[in-house]
Amino acid sequence: MILHCNDRVYGFSVNDIRPAVEQDGVLYEFTHDRTGVKLAWLSRKEENKTFCIGFATIPDNDCGMFHILEHAVLNGSKRYPVKEPFVELMKSSMQTFLNAMTFPDRTLYPVSSRNEKDFENLVRVYMDAVLHPLVVENPEIFYQEGWHYEPEPSGNGYIRNGVVLNEMKGAYSSGDAILQREMKRLLYPDTCYRYEAGGFPEDISRLSYEQLVEYHRKYYRPSNAYIFLDGELPVERILSILDMEYLKQYKREPVETEISIQKKTAPAEAVVPYPSIPGLPEEKAAQMGFGYVAGTFDEKEKLCAAAMLAEYLAGDQDAPLKKAILEQELAQDVEVFLYDGIKQPFLLFLMRNTDKNRRDEISKVLRETLQGIVRCRIDKDRMKAVLNRMEFQAREQEFGWVPEGVGLALKLMGDWMYGLDIMEDLKSESVFTFLRGSLENGYFENIIEEMILSSENQAFVCLTPSEDIMGERLLREKKEINGMTKGWSEQEKGEEAHKLRKLK
């Protein structure tokens, strides 16, 4: 089918058609006239067809509502009322990727297949799951995927159980999760990033079934949806499925999903406990993070430069910052990385297995190392090698464990929702050309000075080891559960028992 700008195809208007040079394809952009759904199709010679639908999901607490929703909508839908569609698809579909993901400000549902009929079926399954999930009428799905009470094995009282609850308890037994949560809380005190989108274990049980249904009603509507298609696929057929079978029954209902930019704040810090690592002596068991807001999502050259600096500073044993810290035995390892995929990414300097009392020494070495680079200039050969590696990865479209089309969807969905031209995430050559030309003019040194040394948006987090933290969490949870359940009548106990039987 030959498409032109302003064509209308099954309720969709063609807004723009542009060559996607680096993908050797053509980017088509559509809007569904009735609902406002935004759809982009990267047409290219790729037999693995990709579909991804995403929603801007902005948390306003730590209950993990969107993480639970991500699980819950995939537990059967109006058209596919099976208990575990994923399991059935794993057995019967020719899918090459099948998953769903909760991010700090969005939820994505990507799927791919090489078989045309199979792909069409997967599109239907995913569309029905997100728009017509059984969970909005069946609270048992919420109890199973979110949380519920059940009797302790000993018969003495109750415990809380649930898929997401247990998943996040596992996540927060890790120091990395604790440190990143604290860092985002300190760096972004006035935005949605101060909340844990996945759900903080102690807050998940504050979410009710009625609240979950309301979050679905508010955010999982077509007017808040973004759809990405990739590969050789029958686009007219896919558009007809989307419109005729799903979208035409809805109308345009705008959703407020604007994320504010964090204003400058005073440097913040926190010292928090984390589960101690067996075998590590206390004087080497602290974990330290120095975080700096790197910029905004649309500053592509600046953010790429920050990612390059991260590898330059700590990418191997000869990297200047890692070498300086290790030679002075201030930590057992150093990692630097750009935490992106949010509206304001941040640069994190992580000192692993250190002494909590050596913060000033570490901070001094960090600043002196960076000041030395600014004063004496970067090692151009080393930075050029970093640039070459990153450019090669971008050119080869390397996305690790996910298929290329899915990788592209994950890469561009966030920026697209923030309002960036989707083409900006499909081209990288201009960014690397700019950075290659900036090796000689002090650009990277200026980035170090502005982003780190003179930063007005920075935070420090120190994790101190605790052998008691897990036990203390259990005691707090037990006390809270007892307070909630000790006054239950026999009727209420019977209702909980009935609820539990329906989950088995």
UniProtKB/TrEMBL annotation:
GO MF: metal ion binding
Chain intervals with Basic and acidic residues compositional bias: 489-498
Where are the residues of the annotated region Disordered? 485-504
Chain ranges of the Peptidase M16 N-terminal domain = 59-135
Peptidase M16 C-terminal domain ranges (all copies)? 207-388
SUPFAM superfamilies named among the record's database cross-references = LuxS/MPP-like metallohydrolase
Please, which domain of life does this record's source organism belong to? Answer: Bacteria
Descriptive protein name: Peptidase M16C associated domain-containing protein
